[in-house]
Write a structure and sequence with these properties.
The protein has a single domain, classed as Rossmann fold (3-Layer(aba) Sandwich), CATH 3.40.50.2020. The chain contains six helices and seven strands, in the order βααβααββαββαβ. A five-stranded parallel sheet has the order 1-7-6-2-3, sandwiched between helices. Helix 6 links the parallel strand 6 and strand 7. Helix 2 packs across helix 4 and helix 5 runs parallel beside helix 6. The mean pLDDT is about 90.
């Protein structure tokens, strides 16, 4: 899974600022960096950009979904459609859970308007990849769309 940086040191600080200290000022810089990396190996015609949604509680508490903000900014930069394909049912956060508990905790559903849609290329944005459980859960849900080219990209990844 490509990432801008490791989730350690400065990477932890950037993601923490984005998520917990209203670091929305970082969105454009992060989106530009992701778009530059994506343009190196993904065709953008017929590309749809989406994100892995945070839990409803986290979104409500923060007032925003950090991955959604970045996905919209990436989409603007790439000139592609951006929409939320996935819904995340209410549940406990992934933070602090073991690998096994993370895999059992996260679920997604496909938004109704996308069921049966034809998407040639899909770019999925997430903030942090730790164990990959969230990405695996999303991939399982997205598999019903039979998208020929699905790419996941995260801001930071644990080493």
């Amino acid at each position: 899974m490509p990432a801008l940086f490791g989730y350690e040191g400065a990477g932890t600080t950037v993601v923490g600022s984005l998520k917990f200290r209203d670091g929305r000022r970082l969105v454009t810089t992060l989106a530009d960096a992701i778009a530059d990396r994506v343009l190196d190996d993904v065709r953008t015609d017929d590309l749809v950009c989406t994100w892995l949604p945070t839990s409803p509680r986290r979104r409500r508490d923060r007032g925003f979904d950090q991955s959604e903000l970045v996905a919209h900014a990436v989409g603007r930069r790439l000139g592609c459609e951006v929409d939320g394909l996935l819904r995340r049912p209410a549940g406990d956060p992934q933070t602090g859970r073991t690998r096994a508990a993370r895999a059992d905790n996260v679920r997604f559903t496909l938004r109704r308007k996308w069921r049966g849609a034809r998407i040639p290329r899909l770019l999925v944005i997430d903030d942090v990849c730790t164990t990959g459980a969230t990405i695996r859960a999303a991939r399982t849900t997205l598999d019903v769309l039979r998208v020929p080219d699905v790419r996941f990209f995260c801001i930071a990844r644990t080493p």
